[in-house]
Amino acid sequence: MKILIVEDDERVADALAGFLGRAGYAVERAGDGRGALDMLGSDTEAVILDLGLPDIDGIELCRRIRAVSGVPILIATARSQVHERIRGLRAGADDFLVKPYDVQELLARIEAVTRRSHAIGTEVGPVGIDIDGVRIDLVARRVLVDGEPVELTRKEFDIVAVLARYPGVPVPRERLIREVWNTDWQSFARSLEVHVASIRRKLGRPALIETVRGVGYRLTGL
Fold first, then answer.
1. Residues sharing a CB contact under 8 Å with residue 85, sequence separation 6 or more, in sequence order
2. For the chain, first and last CA: distance in Å?
3. Is the pLDDT confidence value at 35 over 80?
4. Measuring CA to CA, which residue among 222, 53, 32, 40 is closest to residue 131?
5. What distance in Å separates the CA atoms of residue 99 and residue 84, rounded to the nearest whole number?
6. Domain boundary at 88, 119, 150, which?
7. Closest by CA position to 165, among listed 100, 219, 109, 103
8. Secondary structure of residue 217 in the 3-state scheme
9. Of 25, 42, 137, 165, which is the most exposed, with the fewest CB atoms less than 10 Å away?
10. What is the CATH number of the domain that holds 70?
11. Which residues carry this modification: 4-aspartylphosphate (predicted)?
């Protein structure tokens, strides 16, 4: 597996590249945003992204990567404010880790986002569903509203895909977190809320995903 590290601090990049190399990963390094975009390729399977880059703000770079690729993006930064996490997730990041972090946790999170990336679309279930003018195609991993494609981030689509496999049935928050983030950590509950709000906004169908109080969410309109 090839991982692209986008980090302008050479000492941090050296240490991280060495650790990932010993863990069996092929590593490419970019010290700025333009270099990262040049190195990003079809064989890149994950991106570890610092936000404090010298040429392009990391959030903007995250958006640019997501515009051209579905590669899993893990933001690793010293910015610990909640609003930065929300901005990162809304820009298309799959996970957010605050420095300093334990490298074993980083490794576990890389494994989680890449495993989820490979697994989505392979489970038994409907290949697609139509609700209230919204077409959810689980094979092509796309959503169309009144025939027009809507750009969702990887995590946003994963949430929609889980709900689409159980149309009309409340899906517990815990299950969504487990299937989409591949973890049982309830600290992801806020991230789930942020992603659902973003999906509703992008689809222009706020009532399509109903909040089931005390349980989770379900697709409605059937």
1. 96, 191
2. 41
3. yes
4. 222
5. 13
6. 119
7. 219
8. strand
9. 42
10. 3.40.50.2300
11. 50
The tens digit of pLDDT for each residue in 105-131 reads 888 888 877 766 554 443 434 567 888
pLDDT of residue 221: 60
Q: Report strand pairing: 2-6 vs 44-49.
A: parallel
Whether residues 23 and 87 share a domain: the answer is yes
Question: Which tokens go with 112?
Answer: 């989680």
Helices (H), 23-81: 33-39, 58-68
Tell me the three state secondary structure of residue 29: strand
Q: Are residues 80 and 98 in contact, defined by beta-carbon separation less than 8 angstroms?
A: yes
Asked whether the beta carbons of 59 and 87 are under 8 A apart, the reply is yes
Residues 97 and 154 in one domain: no
β-pair partners for 201:
none
What tokens appear for 206 in the block? 């706020």
Q: Do residues 97 and 66 share a domain?
A: yes
List all residues 6 or more positions away from 22 whose beta carbon is below 8 Å from its beta carbon: none
Instruction: Identify whether residues 211 and 180 lie together within a single domain.
Output: yes
| Band (175; pLDDT cuts 50, 70, 90) | confident
Phi, psi dihedral angles at 87 (to 5 degrees): -60, -40
pTM of the model: 0.57
Whether residue 154 sits in one domain with residue 95:
no
